[in-house]
Design a protein that fits this description.
single chain, alpha/beta, pyruvate-formate lyase- activating enzyme, five-stranded mixed beta sheet
């Protein structure tokens, strides 16, 4: 049983205390008896405890920095949304394959931003620019936001904000089952709540520190019953021994638990396993015993954004993965919609 995240160590930027949310969080963590340190900026966080790199890395993953989001320009978030909405950065999970390994670099601690109202005001500007089109915002590009929201409630604030808009939609994905505080949020059907799911082999070998599949599915049922539009991301789709059977079992479990009355509006997003050369170096440094297959010779090279190419499966293997998984969606969720396969 994965317990709700509690940081070992909390840093607060002085400017965060100029916002009511920062003051509330400081008080909350003081009452919880956590060690709180001041830092002028998240870039100045120093002296993460640990005798070596791996210990410091693990401690950093359970360190929370309460700060102010300075850059209010949103990144694009294709193909899942028009924009990434930056409510938090970093994750307490230890997924070996995660792309945050490289984007977080040497600072894998978790940051939560207290200037949520300013961030939402910026979202409003983006919506107005695109009006009358619907604008979608992805809240989990740089973190597993659900994993910390039982402490911060910034995601809950965003859900209720988008619940009041006509042309904005919020979406996020999680590997955690700690969703109870979000069930009564006034979402008005404007937020799609997605869960990351995978074959047992992938979860057991490469997703330590996250909720087991059964608990994710239980949480998905709760969320659907609370009226949220529901989605699943199957990622990374990973070739392993008997992978066809592994993914079939995954869909059988989903089929056994997801209620019939919410199946008309379920989305599926599919992302095959990929890695970059820099990611491979960081993964092998942070998880030296990983069984993750990172062999460039067995992959196809595809140019990516920002000039960094990635290694994905060869064309014929990719086609087999796609046909197999989309076939399971057709079989078990005939009204489900596959939004993309990449």
């Amino acid at each position: 049983m994965i317990k709700p995240f509690v940081p070992q160590l909390v840093y607060i930027e002085p400017r965060a205390l100029e916002y009511p949310r920062g003051v509330e969080l400081k008080k909350k963590f003081e009452e919880m008896g956590l060690e709180i340190r001041e830092t002028t900026s998240h870039n100045q966080v120093r002296n993460i405890p640990g005798n070596n790199h791996l210990q410091q890395y693990r401690t950093a993953k359970s360190t929370l920095v309460i700060g102010v989001r300075k850059t209010l320009e949103f990144d694009s978030s294709k193909p899942s949304a028009e924009y990434a909405i930056p409510l938090a950065t970093g994750c307490m999970g230890h997924c070996h394959y995660c792309y945050l390994q490289t984007t977080m670099g040497s600072k894998p601690y978790i940051r939560t931003y207290v200037n949520v109202d300013e961030i939402l005001d910026q979202a409003q500007k983006y919506m107005e620019e695109r009006s009358p089109q619907i604008t979608r915002f992805e809240a989990s590009c740089t973190s597993d936001i659900v994993g910390i929201d039982h402490l911060t409630h910034s995601l809950k604030s965003a859900i209720e904000y988008f619940g009041q808009t006509d042309i904005g939609r919020l979406r996020f994905v999680t590997k955690f089952h700690h969703v109870d505080h979000l069930l009564d949020a006034k979402h008005n059907g404007k937020t799609r709540f997605r869960f990351s799911i995978n074959a047992d082999y992938v979860i057991k070998n490469f997703e330590p520190g996250t909720s087991p599949l059964e608990q994710r599915i239980e949480a998905a049922v709760k969320v659907a019953k609370a009226g949220y539009p529901l989605g699943f991301i199957v990622a990374p789709i990973y070739v392993h021994e008997n992978w066809q059977e592994g993914y079939k079992e995954l869909f059988e479990k989903l089929d056994a638990h997801i209620p019939a009355d919410v199946r008309d509006d379920i989305t599926f997003e599919m992302i095959q396993h990929r890695f970059t050369k820099p990611a491979k170096r960081v993964i092998q440094k942070n998880y030296p015993k990983t069984r993750l297959e990172l062999n460039e010779e067995e992959r196809r090279y595809k140019w990516g954004r920002y000039g960094i190419g990635k290694y994905i499966y060869p064309k014929d293997q990719e086609q087999e993965l796609r046909e197999t998984l989309e076939g399971y969606v057709d079989q078990y969720f005939p009204n489900g919609k596959v939004e993309y396969f990449t």
